[in-house]
Amino acid sequence: MALFKWCFRVVLLLITLSACAAGYLYHVMTSPINLTSEDIFEVQAGDTSYSLGVSLSEKDIIEHPVLTRIVSKIHPEWVPKVGQYALKPDMTLLDVMAVFDSGQSIFYSVTLLEGKTTREFLAAMQAKGNITMTLEGLSDQAIVDALSLNVTHPEGLFFANTYRYHEGDTDVSILKHANQLLNQTLSELWANKADDLPYKTSYDALIMASIIEKETGVPEERPLISRVFISRLEKKMRLQTDPTVIYGLGEGFDGNLTRKSLQSPSPYNTYKIAALPPTPIANVGREAIYAALNPGETTALYFVAKGDGSHTFSNTLKEHNRAVRQYQFKRREDYRSAPQTTPETAK
Predict the structure, then answer these.
(1) Domains in the chain with CATH codes
(2) CA end-to-end span of the chain, whole Å?
(3) Exposure of 257 by Cβ count < 10 A (0-12 exposed, 13-18 middle, 19+ buried)?
(4) Kindly report the CA angle at 127 between 121 and 131, in degrees rounded to 5?
(5) Which of 110, 126, 227, 315 could lock onto 295 through a cystine, CB 3.0 to 4.6 A?
C-alpha cells in the first residue's frame, strides 16, 4: 500500500511537471518574440527547423533554438520556404514559423518606364542590386532566345509598368511577365481598334505606339500625334521623326542630331524611308498603344516641340516652318522636346 501511494505520487508529480512544462512552452511560443522593430530574416536553402532556431537565437529573436523543433513536431505540415521575411515585434514564434511555411516572403519592386529601351530596362533592374542578371551584354538574338520569343529583335516587347519580385528573381522572369502583359494589352486594344487604320498587324501598331511615346509624354497629345503620323502614312509621306533616326544610330549617337545624321542610311531613318521602321524603338504602356489604335481628330500633318514638353501642330508646311523658326531657332534655356518622366509620373 505504501509502495502504491509512492508510485501514485511520482506519477502525479510527473504529470504536474509535464503540465507545467507544456504550459511554459505554450506561453513561450505564444508570447511576442524579442524584437523592438521590424527585422528581415532570410530562410536559406537547406535550412531545417532546428537550424532556423539556431539562427533566430543568434539574433536574440528567441531564447532557445530547440523551440522551433518543438513547433515543427506540433505542426509537421509546416515546411519553411526559401525567401526573405519581415518579422514584426507583435509576432509570436508560432506566427514566425507559420509565415516561413506560407512562402509570403518580402516583395521588392522595379519600375520599367515608358519610352525606355530594353537595354535601359536591363540597366534599371541591374541598379536594384538584388535581381539575378543573366541578359546583360547578350546580343538581341540571344536575349529573345533566352526569353523564348518568336522574333529576332526584343525591342518594344515589354510592357512599361512596375513589377514586384522576390530577392534573387531573374531578369528573365521579370521580362517574361512584362512580355505577357504587353501581349495581353495589345491583343485587347487591337480587338477594339478604330476603323480604317494603315496597319497590317498589331505589331505595326506597336511600332507606331513606340514612336508616339518617344515624341511626347503629354497624355492629351498622344492621339493627335498618332493622327498626324497616320495621315502621313496614308498620304505616302515620310514620318520624318527624329527618335527613329536616333534609335538607328545606336551607340553612335552623341546627343547631337545633325544634318549628316538625318542622311544616315538606316531602316530606322524615317527621313529616308516612307514607312514605319522595322521594329519598335522603345517599350510603351497602355496609353501609347491606345493612341496608336484610336487616333484623335486633327487635319495637321506637322508638329514641332515648343520646348516645354508640348508641341504645336500645323496643317501646312508654311505654318510648320513658321513654328520651327519660332520654337527651334531660338530655343529656351530649359528646352526639352518631351516632359521628364519619373517613376511617379509614369503610368
Answers:
(1) 29-102 (3.30.1490.480), 107-186 (no CATH), 195-298 (no CATH)
(2) 86
(3) middle
(4) 80
(5) 227
pTM check: above 0.85 = no
Contacts of 216 (CB under 8 A, 6+ apart): 222, 225, 309, 310, 311, 338, 339
pLDDT in single tens digits along all 347 residues of the chain: 554 454 444 444 444 444 444 555 666 667 888 888 888 898 888 899 889 999 999 999 988 888 888 888 888 898 998 888 989 988 898 889 898 898 888 889 999 999 999 999 999 999 999 999 999 999 999 999 999 998 889 999 999 999 999 888 999 999 999 999 999 999 999 999 999 999 999 999 999 999 999 998 788 999 999 999 999 999 999 999 999 999 998 887 877 777 887 888 899 999 999 999 999 999 999 999 999 999 999 999 988 888 777 888 889 898 888 888 887 766 555 444 554 444 444 43
